[in-house]
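Sanity check

After download, print the first record. It should look like this:
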Amino acid sequence: MSVSRKILLIALSFALPIAVLVYLTVINIDANITFAQWELKGDEYQRPLEELLHCLQSEQITLHSSGIKAAAETSKKIDSLPGSTKTSSMGRLRPRSGKRSTASSDLRVRKRRL
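Expected structure tokens:
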């Protein structure tokens, strides 16, 4: 075997592990980016629901303290919020077929599809 072939073989033996490590690093970074994107979507979904929960709590307080007439006004406000049953624009994010959906199971499903 000539000297140039030996040098080439040595260079390849060092380059192969480096290439594998670069590939694994890129895959890991991509998984982190995907997870962060799902986190942002979850945040976007949760914000209106927090407002809905706050309004529901104030409706309960109003019902117990002042009666039905004041609660009707709060109920109208709740019906106009995103995420309520009458105006839900987030139907595509709801769990399918009655199963409870979690962010971790959705992420696992998405990773399998990739």
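If your output differs, re-run the checksum step. Summary of this record's structure: The radius of gyration is 27 Å.
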